[in-house]
Amino acid sequence: DVCGDVKFVRTIKPIIDDLDGKTLVVDDFQKATLHLAAVISSNYLVTLMGMVEELFENSEIDQQQIKKAMIPLMQSALRNLENQSPSEALTGPIARGDFETIQKHLNLLVEKTELNRTYRRLGKETIRLLGKESTEEIKTKLLSLFDEQ
Fold first, then answer.
1. What are 61-89's pLDDT values in tens digits?
2. Neighbours of 102 (CB within 10 A)
3. Which pTM value belongs to this model?
């Protein structure tokens, strides 16, 4: 981040360019929005891994093994996002309209109240990403699965 008045930014830009850096000139509102986006895309990705680990906290599976299994999936999703929209990069049971698998997931989360709430909320957000290939009927049926019971 480089912050400053116009004169400072003009002075520092050639140095950034020499270092093959990128500059983006934004106003205060855009800067705040960019910071919010950075928190969501970076910190919350870490939070998701924390949720994954919580699923296995009473399991005999080592946390390092969980990370070794999940991080490549996360990296694959990030690579997909480099060249696709979130809607196009979406995979998994919601994208497939796999109601049975989603119900199994919800059953696994019955005893884990906070994870259950978060899974349901993220599921609803994921449904909003579904493209035109998913009918309104499928989206409505998916949403009904994620409603609190």
1. 999 999 999 999 999 999 999 999 999 99
2. 19
3. 0.82
